[in-house]
Each structure stands twice: as C-alpha cells, then as structure tokens.
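Entry: Lysozyme inhibitor LprI N-terminal domain-containing protein
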Amino acid sequence: MFLSGYGHPAVSGVLFTTFVLAAPSVFADPQSVSAAAATDVAAVLPHALPAPQVIVLTEAELPKGKDAETRKAEDLARDQALRAKCKAIPKDTYDKYLCERRAQVDLVNQLDELLQQVATLTPRWPVDVAADQAQWESRRNACRTDQDVKMCLEFAYLERIGQLQAQFGLVAADGPIAYQCGDTALQLTYHATNPPLVEVSHAGEHRLAWMRPTDMGVYYRGEVTVREYRGGADVTWAQQTWACQQTSQ
C-alpha cells in the first residue's frame, strides 16, 4: 500500500467498474416499458453492448501457484544453502548479513538488476548514477559500525532502490503538487516506493526524502526534510525551513 500523507491518495491498484446503460426515457416513464421489452434488453437498448461470455475452467485448467508448504520448503532449503555457503563468516557481522540473510540477498539482487535496467533508460531529471552509487556505497559500508547492522543494511538497500525507482519513474506517483512557502514555490511528488518517498522540486533541483515512523503527522527525512500536516507541510531544504501551504491538488 502506498501511503502518501494528507490529501495524497494511494496509487494502489486497478478499479473494476461495471456500467449499466439505459435510455433516459425508460427511467423517466417506467410504465412505457412493455413486459416484453423488460425481458428483452435489445428491445429497450438496441445498441447495448453484448453480455460478457463466461468461460468456465476445469480444476486442471485453473492457474496454480505454489502452496504454502512448497514455498516454506523452498525457503528452508535456500536458507540452509546460504548458511552452508557463508559458514566461515563470523556471526552477526556486516558480511554475514550480506551473505547469509535471505531477505538481504534478495535486496542485493534486486539492486543489481535495477542498476542494469536503468543503464538503458533516461532519468526524469539529470542524474549521475555512477556518482550516486559511489556515495551510497560509502553510506552502506558505514553500517559496519551501526548498533543494528541488519536493519541498517536493509534500509540502505531499500532507500537506494527507491531512489532509482523515483529518478527513472519506475513506480506509481502522485504529483507534482504545488506548495507555496512565502515567496518560495515548491513541488512535491509522492512515489510508491518501499518505504514511500517524496520528491521535492525547487529551482530546477530535485531532492528525495523517505517516510519515517512518527506520532505527529507524516514525516519524511533524507536529502530534504518534510513534515506534513493537513493542507500544508514544513520543509527543510539545506539550512532553510519553510512553512508551506498546498496550492493545487
């Protein structure tokens, strides 16, 4: 689910709607519809769409995914293989988590695949992927000394993946939404990454911040800080903090 704060609906899926068409005169005067016409849609709506055909599939024809027991067995086998591969690495270390923890290995693979994908794409604004990657690797490596190495690594990868997804428009987005901050105009765009992030545009520059847990409104922190409240937001850009009001949806 993509949570984007007050007034910014989630982009969460596809809405399926069934439309029933009818001639206005039929509803204006129900008595004008004969018994025959009431049972014959074509008589009332000569141009009505044909009724959808229902195709019934047999049990053998139904698409089947893996059941819970199969997935559990596969995960267990993979965990055992990773533990065997990484056995010589000391426990609860940076290198151990990168090598052995299945969720972390999946994030490493996802980032590697994403970097290959964006190499052939054009970013939404000028981006130096190589320089960003080098800076990110320095921040990731700082997790070696973090009190919670496991969570530090996981969030580092999630944020880098989200950064690339926003820069190259690879996820659903809500915006840009205009905010006026005194004499300063900003645009905020909310991206359905994990965790959700907000892109703040100002004077041709784009900065990103990721949603953080908070008890007071919606809070984003990163290259810029955004604290949302109904109809507005406090935005800290470099050393400047603005009180902003939303001017468009």
